[in-house]
Amino acid sequence: MVARRVPRWSELAPLIRPRRLPGDAVDRRLAKAADVRDIRAIARRQVPRAVFDYTDGAAGEELSLARSSEAFRRVEFRPSVLRDVSAVDLSTTILGKPSALPLVFAPTGFTRLMNSEGEPAVARVAERVGIPHALSTMGTTSMEALAAAAPQVRRWFQLYLWRDRESSAAMVQRAREAGYEALVLTVATPVAGARLRDARNGFSIPPALTLRTAANAALHPRWWFDLLTTEPLEFASLSSWGGTIAELVDKVFEPAATIADVRRLRADWPGSLVVKGIQTVEDAREVVDAGADAVVVSNHGGRQLDRAPTPLEVLPSVVAAVGDRAEVYLDGGILDGADVVAAVAFGARACLVGRAYLYGLMAGGERGVQRVADLLTAEMRRTLQLLGVTSIAEVTADRVRLRPTP
Ligand SMILES: Cc1cc2nc3c(=O)[nH]c(=O)nc-3n(C[C@H](O)[C@H](O)[C@H](O)COP(=O)(O)O)c2cc1C
User: Fold this and answer.
1) CA angle, corner 130, sides to 125 and 132, nearest 5?
2) The model's pTM
């Protein structure tokens, strides 16, 4: 039997500490998030459902996306102990230039839909953190405006091969003039993936206030106020459009694109060429033979072919096939700094993230993106320390294995 007594006020008082975080409501909301999944939960409350679903969703039954995330859960690290990990260096090189982290902000279309601060906010965070930012062909900020908003960021431009080759060539020329260092050619989009959430939500571009969406819109007056009181939401590189994303993709994108287009682009573009959307070893070889400097092992975040290969599982064989001639990156389902460390251990030079920073953008504009970058950085640092290594170069294949599927 434990002897009990009545606690004294002098003992209780120091324990009662109302947690007052500094800043406004947005700062407090973001500060309370312990990881990117918490940021996602905040994001969900900030924007209309159709907008959240467009960002969060994937194609078909969303199996590709679920498998990409699940693969990261099967990672098992092999740590060393009793190493001095008091100082950790997370920097690396990407396309031969220094990067503060093995991380790139992936190209995402329609970014100003998530929050009116849009691509400039994302690029400014990339600039501050010291990582590359890729602007999408479907971006809502022009290449030139983005360059002005974040003059020091490493600027990449993502290109789709269009039916209209002249417009495509004109964009490449503009990217060159606006000082973009790399073109990211996305090749996993001959046609639009089946985005069922968008179809069910009646999601269109620009967002339409229909009877169906009005009730949900009423729950997010702040988002609508921002949308209606800032620059009209338009694709910066495409002429005005009113229709579904799938209709747009099918109208603009070139289903007849082939490897010859990659060779042509290589001949026309003097900067670095990254080919994004590689899912097999054969395709990796073919695009590197055609002159790609880097490939992204990616199924477009599960937004195109459902039941596509899982990037983390394909990665080691792609690295073995082309890693001596090209850099290999990976994306899809990354929500934690430990995921990035795992991908690096499996041979990736860097990872791209899309949804992670978009959740931040929806949750709190530029501050939300910064919070996501800070969380990912802290997670990477802690993972290296707990692995007993002090630099990205030491994150080698012997540090990880994939546990078999249960
Ligand atoms: C809302 C959204 C829009 C996207 N738009 C583009 C795009 O315009 N061009 C492109 O190459 N990839 C696009 N992607 C794919 C990303 O570049 C990246 O491959 C993917 O988001 C990685 O998966 P993650 O979101 O799980 O990190 C988009 C992804 C999302 C979530």
Assistant:
1) 80
2) 0.95
CB atoms under 10 Å from CB of 70, counted, come to 14
**182: enclosing H helix or E strand:** strand 182-186
> What is the C-alpha to C-alpha distance for residues 369 and 365, in angstroms, rounded to an integer?
7
Q: pLDDT, tens digit, for every residue of 159-213?
A: 988 888 888 888 999 999 999 999 999 999 888 899 999 989 888 766 776 666 7
Q: Which residue, chain included where needed, has tokens 């571009």?
A: 205
Task: Extract the tokens encoding 25.
Answer: 């409501």
Ligand 1 binding pocket includes 355 (Cβ within 6 Å): yes
Out of 300, 367, 371, 399, the active site residue is 300
From 110, 160, 300, the mutation candidate for ligand 1 (largest count of ligand atoms within 8 A of CB) is: 300
Query: Is the Cβ atom of 55 under 6 angstroms away from ligand 1?
Result: yes
The pLDDT tens digits for 238-281 are: 665 566 767 777 777 888 899 999 999 999 999 999 999 999 99
The atom of ligand 1 lying closest to the CA of 277 is 19
The two structure tokens encoding residue 166: 């002249």
Q: Is 220 an active-site residue?
A: no
